[in-house]
Amino acid sequence: HSLLRLYTQRRDKLDFKPRTAQSSPLAIEELRMALTQRRFVLHYQPKIDMQSGQLAGVEALVRLTCNQYQIVFPNDFIPLCEAHGLIDDLSYEVIRLAIEQQKRWQQAGLDTAISVNLSAVSFANEAFSGRVMQQVGELGDAAKQLIFEVTETAIIQDIGKALSILTRLRLSGCGLSIDDYGTGYSSIKQLSQIPFTELKIDRSLIEGVSRKAHLQVIFESTLSMCNKLGLKVVAEGIEKKSDWKYLAAQGCHIGQGYYYSPPMPEEDLLRWWQAGMPALS
Length: 281
Ligand code: C2E
Ligand code: MG
Ligand code: MG
Ligand code: MG
Hints:
Order of helices and strands: HHEEEHHEHEHHEHEHEHEH
Mean pLDDT: 90
Radius of gyration: 18 Å
Structural class: alpha/beta
Number of helices: 11
Protein name: EAL domain-containing response regulator
Strand order of the largest sheet: 1-2-4-5-6-7-8-9
Number of strands: 9
Domain EAL: 24-277
Strand content: 15-25%
Bound molecules: ligand C2E, magnesium ion
Keywords: Phosphoprotein
Low-confidence stretches: 10-26
């Protein structure tokens, strides 16, 4: 379990002192510098096809490297980037890194889809759409191997703008995923306007599902709805074997979580895949 400890250690174990947008205008300069210095890296968490046991893809999760031993997690810098106009540039960088990664893994024999998280703050910027479409356009057919995740609350804030960019991405062949489903206040009517290909049920509705009747009702009805709509269902943040077993038996399409594997740096992900994708637990 040392791998799990290593990749899930939180900021309290690190020397880095996160600052909030209010308390320090300097921190954003550090982030800007980190971007030009290319110190953002991606870790990758496997998504497992629960029915076949095969690799369904990986989710790219951004981290900031401070030095060899310190990394900063996204919850400590994404809000700051969003508040100070740096999020679009960070997204271009994350997309660039993911595309480069895909090529490197392909050379090693691993051909897999990568999911990238987008911030809905970017949807307000017209130029964002154009620049991302350019990055995606260069991929041609390989755009099918790229999935964009957006949280449901984010979409609803400005459904018109979200609809415009997300539809363009979908038409280019990319997958579209509703992230953290069940935590926001989206209406199914609004969500159904956007051509999503996947729905990720939030961890808070997954934890303990094997023994909590109300979570089972929510899961089963969500799965049934998604099956009828042709959406893949991903259960996020599965930590327990009992929950994994339950979800797989109910017909859940894809599972993701510490039970199977934490997010890993590129070399570790490759080694794990070469070793036959063993479950951690
Ligand atoms: P998310 O997209 O919902 O990603 C899932 C988060 O849950 C990740 O945290 C992941 O490491 C963590 N996780 C995965 N499995 C488990 C589990 O079994 N148990 C628990 N307790 N946690 C689990 P992380 O990497 O700290 O990312 C947090 C959030 O930051 C992400 O939530 C996403 O909204 C955002 N984020 C990450 N990378 C990016 C990015 O490149 N761009 C943007 N805009 N946001 C990002
Ligand atoms: Mg996500
Ligand atoms: Mg999520
Ligand atoms: Mg989340």
